[in-house]
């Protein structure tokens, strides 16, 4: 990966500030830009809600190993946290439909979109909501 020196400097600052929040190490360092690149269909360097939902829909299908239209806790292990799962499962049947999954995706999208412009840029994926969202789409 090529990184502009200035961008890298900016990122280093950022990661110094965020150091306390980051879990040990480099693997997550460029996760935000990777996820944007991967799902940015119109190549505007940001992900809009439609792009995020398309990715989330594909991820739902991938996670749904038994193809029964819902995700149970085992299928969402490491992807949806217990608390988020409960909140997204209003009928409390222990499974998430795709619609329920999309509700989590939309709410995290809004939380991660700190400048409220309707799109997520790479740096917005570095927030807590952004990282949680990334798990749901990638
Ligand atoms: Ca885009
Ligand atoms: Ca399932
Ligand atoms: Ca449910
Ligand atoms: Ca934004």
Structural notes for this entry:
- Residues 100-135 form the EF-hand domain.
- It is built from six helices and four strands; from the N terminus they run ααβαβαβαβα.
- With 138 residues, it is mainly α.
- The protein has one domain (31-137): Recoverin, domain 1 (Orthogonal Bundle).
- A two-stranded antiparallel ribbon has the order 1-4. A two-stranded antiparallel sheet has the order 2-3.
- Helix 3 packs across helix 5 (98-112) and helix 5 runs antiparallel to helix 6 (128-137).
- The longest helix has 15 residues, at 49-63.
- Residues 19-28 have low confidence and may be disordered.
- The protein binds calcium ion (CA) (4 copies).
Q: Could you tell me how far the N terminus lies from the C terminus, measured between alpha carbons in angstroms?
A: 19 Å
- In what range is the share of β-strand residues? 5-15%
Mean pLDDT across all amino acids: 86
CATH topology: Recoverin, domain 1
The topology string of helices and strands comes to HHEHEHEHEH
Bound molecules: calcium ion
Calculate Rg over CA atoms. 16 Å
Looking across the biggest beta sheet, what order are the strands in? 1-4
Question: Which bin fits the share of residues in helices?
Answer: 40-55%
- The CATH architecture designation is Orthogonal Bundle
For the report, how would you describe the main beta sheet?
A: 2 strands, antiparallel
Number of domains: 1
- What would the principal axes of the Cα set say about the shape? globular
* Class from secondary-structure proportions: mainly alpha
